[in-house]
Write a structure and sequence with these properties.
This is Oxidoreductase. The protein is mostly helical. It is 76% helix and 0% strand. The C terminus is likely disordered.
Amino acid sequence: MSSASRNVSTIMRVALGILFLAHGIAKFQMGLGNVAGWFSSIGVPGFLGYVVAVIELVGGIALILGLLTRYVSGLLVIVLIGAIFTAKLSGGLMGNGQGAGYELDIAFILVALHLVFVPTTRLSLDSLFSRRGSTEQ
């Protein structure tokens, strides 16, 4: 992988991490009970509101640090697909004036999928662990 590609992958990882961290913080600020209530109101088990909030918050931090990037990114793809099919699909790609569309979710899925499949970048905790493991072998 070229240096430019590694740099772009790092930027994508950190940016996606910041975005998910912000979404996680927003859920905690509005109150997890309210998030669970909203999940229930759209037909999703309320406890998943707690799960999603933690995944977004912790996952965002992990992506910023570059920790377990592939696994976190894969988990976020699942969360995003769930969001599309449970909350956003009926609003259409661009939204319907009453709710958000799923265009950004698709963009986030593509970034997260990229992070699942590209090699680890130097500016990540993952790279520290992979170097340590490769020098011990």
